[in-house]
């Protein structure tokens, strides 16, 4: 589940993923992932056609299975860029960086960067088609593995 709210100078997004991952025995584990929220404030004037916003981000270790989350509280930064196209379509880019700051001491520290390009294409008649991908890059060498991994 993902929600993006744009209001005046503020862009807020909250994400609670429903995920699936394979465990060490080859069994599929499914459930909720870690909850993530960011609150970005516009740095361009509200009258500007383009939007650039930056702000803090927080991730809570809410995963229902150790294979579906980091087991760590994480804090970081988010940047959002929006560019409207003719016809009501929209190009969006979301960049995030986060680093663990608390959580299960048996789990390795987590640090990562993600970039998510999104195209919201207006097809007319009130219909919008959204296309997006998420690319994650780990910044640190992995630490010791969780005992279950």
Q: What's the total number of strands?
A: 11
Uncertain segments of ≥5 residues (pLDDT<50)? 141-149
Q: Write down the secondary-structure element order.
A: EEEEEEEEEEE
Class computed from helices, strands and strand pairing: mainly beta
Summed up, the helix count is 0
**Helicity range of the residues?**
under 10%
Produce the secondary structure layout.
Blueprint: E1 2-7, E2 10-15, E3 18-22, E4 28-32, E5 35-42, E6 51-60, E7 72-84, E8 90-103, E9 111-124, E10 127-132, E11 135-138
Antiparallel strand pairs: 1-2, 2-5, 3-4, 5-6, 6-7, 7-8, 8-9, 9-10, 9-11
Description of the molecule:
- It is a single chain.
- The chain is mainly β and 149 residues long.
- The protein has one domain (2-20, 28-138).
- Helices cover 0% and strands 61% of the residues.
- The protein has no helices and eleven strands.
- The chain has strands spanning 2-7, 10-15, 18-22, 28-32, 35-42, 51-60, 72-84, 90-103, 111-124, 127-132, 135-138.
- The strands form two sheets. Strands 1, 2, 5, 6, 7, 8, 9, 10 and 11 form a nine-stranded antiparallel sheet that branches.
- Strand 5 and strand 6 (51-60) form a beta hairpin.
- The two termini are 26 Å apart.
- The relative contact order is 0.16.
């Amino acid at each position: 589940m993902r929600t993006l709210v744009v209001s005046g100078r503020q862009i807020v997004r909250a994400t609670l993923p429903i995920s699936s991952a394979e465990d060490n025995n080859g069994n599929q584990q499914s459930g909720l992932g870690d909850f993530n929220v960011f609150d970005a404030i516009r740095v361009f004037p509200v009258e500007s056609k383009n939007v650039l916003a930056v702000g803090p981000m927080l991730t809570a270790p809410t995963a229902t299975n150790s294979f579906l989350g980091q087991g760590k509280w994480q804090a970081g930064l988010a940047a959002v860029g929006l560019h409207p196209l003719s016809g009501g379509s929209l190009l969006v880019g979301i960049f995030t960086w986060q680093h663990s700051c608390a959580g299960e001491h048996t789990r390795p520290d987590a640090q990562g960067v993600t970039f998510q390009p999104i195209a919201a294409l207006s097809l007319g008649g009130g219909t919008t088609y959204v296309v997006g991908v998420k690319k994650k890059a780990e910044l640190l060498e992995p630490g010791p593995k969780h005992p279950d991994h």
